[in-house]
Amino acid sequence: MSWSFETDSDFQAQLDWIDTFTREEIEPLDLVFRGPGDPWDPASPAARAMAPLKQIAKDKRLWACHLGPELGGQGYGQVKLGLMNEILGRSRFGPSVFGCQAPDSGNAEILAHFGTPQQKKKFLQPLLDGNIASCYSMTEPQAGADPAEFECIATRDGDSWVINGEKWFASHARFSEFLLVMVVTNPDVPIHQGASIILVEKDTPGMEILRNSAVGPYVEQGDGVHGYLRFTDCRVPAENLLGEEGQGFLVAQTRLGGGRVHHAMRSVGVLKKAMDMMCERVLSRTTKGERLADKQLTQEKIADTYTQILQYRLHVLYTAWLIDKYKEYNREVRKEIAAIKAATPKVLQEVIYRVMHLHGSLGMSDEVPLMNMWANIPELGVVDGPSEVHKITVARTVLRDYEAAPGLFPTYHTPALREKAMAKYGHFLD
Ligand SMILES: Cc1cc2nc3c(=O)[nH]c(=O)nc-3n(C[C@H](O)[C@H](O)[C@H](O)COP(=O)(O)OP(=O)(O)OC[C@H]3O[C@@H](n4cnc5c(N)ncnc54)[C@H](O)[C@@H]3O)c2cc1C
């Protein structure tokens, strides 16, 4: 029997170092580089500023450490990554400095599992080194949450696949060296058997970016990083198909499962940062003769926030522990990932709102980072699938362990249970 909530002392020492490094060296980047491509665009000034910090993470052997040693990581697994990410999540730049940023971390896993030796040499190594960016493109303008509506098709023509169709919200497409594109390769079977993932190199003729959307009203229109793509007779070599034809969703699971739990781990970091701000604020602000911290209505907010964050954090770490235990995205793991994916925007919404509220006008001003945190919440309810779809997964999986009552009344109907209980213990009443 082993059941522990402790971090071993060696790893705790590393976490303490990561914490100081994040606060002192990484968080200031958030105040200087605010472009929509930061921190992912390798050609941005932010990338130059990050380069020495990445080297420090590599020298400390903390680079991409969720990956196995064969991919240049330490093979730490998801629990350790979770503990790291809840520190790195304090900054937009944290994951990139430590080589575990989305979507590149998941794309690297797909290439590692399914790429040819040439593809690995050309794309995987530079991606793992943090020198190039990559894109995962699945959503279509008419269809996101329901893949059965996908229309972007690839047809085999000799030694090539020819792609036609559109993709939507392909993050980082405009500065990625390659895109992993989900396409329909057999429209005559259900989509989960008829979709495949194809690698498309940047500048391949026939692929164009119609425009780049941004999340939020913060940049000039068209200056975002989420590409609206059109493929017109876009021809790629046959070996660019990753995995078996028709296995696109199986291949995608390699990254989507991990990606969803990593969003949650980073969200723990955001929540803890917000909690720190809340506590400092209520101890500092005085009104009607006492600190906010002394008012019971504030104390309730502190208690609720503390409890919600702890519950969420333990659920995230439990899910990470399950992934490490089973080493695959089995039904149990998928249920927990779906549960925390759906919980993420909800807990952020409640906590960040409370913290903003306690800061009054300052909370919603551009002089504290709370409005940025707030603006990111809606995307966490949609990216990698909307909450509703994940809740459906949770409910269906939970219900698999139950059966309908055999009779008219439930199995826990007291009259029948009492009759049985009386037969067993009733004689003691005599
Ligand atoms: C910041 C950001 C980055 C993204 N990056 C990428 C990327 O790199 N690559 C990529 O392929 N995609 C990306 N996406 C797209 C994302 O995966 C989709 O937004 C998501 O799958 C939902 O699809 P949709 O936007 O078309 O919404 P829709 O499918 O139109 O859903 C809209 C709403 O309808 C409701 N709904 C949908 N299905 C159900 C259901 N079954 N039951 C009940 N209600 C339902 C929900 O309220 C849902 O939010 C990104 C999105 C965001 C916000």
Characterization of the model:
- With about 425 residues, this protein is of the alpha+beta class.
- It has 3 domains: about 90 residues, Orthogonal Bundle (Butyryl-Coa Dehydrogenase, subunit A, domain 1), CATH 1.10.540; about 110 residues, Butyryl-CoA Dehydrogenase, subunit A, domain 2 (Beta Barrel), CATH 2.40.110.10; about 150 residues, Butyryl-CoA Dehydrogenase, subunit A, domain 3 (Up-down Bundle).
- It is about 50% helix and about 15% strand.
- The strands form 3 sheets. It has a 4-stranded mixed sheet with strand order 1-4-5-8. A 4-stranded antiparallel sheet has the order 2-3-7-6, with no helix packed on it. Strands 9-10 form a two-stranded antiparallel ribbon.
- A hairpin with a 2-residue loop joins strand 2 and strand 3.
- Helix 1 runs antiparallel to helix 2, helix 8 runs antiparallel to helix 9 and helix 9 runs antiparallel to helix 10.
- The site of flavin-adenine dinucleotide (FAD) has 20 residues, from strand 1, strand 3 and helix 13.
Write the SSE topology.
Elements: H1 9-32, H2 45-59, H3 77-88, H4 94-97, H5 104-114, H6 117-128, E1 133-137, E2 153-157, E3 160-171, E4 176-184, H7 191-194, E5 195-201, E6 207-213, E7 226-237, E8 241-242, H8 248-284, E9 286-287, E10 290-291, H9 296-326, H10 331-358, H11 360-363, H12 370-380, H13 387-400, H14 414-425
Parallel strand pairs: 1-4
Antiparallel strand pairs: 2-3, 3-7, 4-5, 5-8, 6-7, 9-10
Helix pairs in contact: 1-2, 1-3, 3-8, 3-9, 5-6, 5-8, 8-9, 8-10, 9-10, 10-12, 10-13
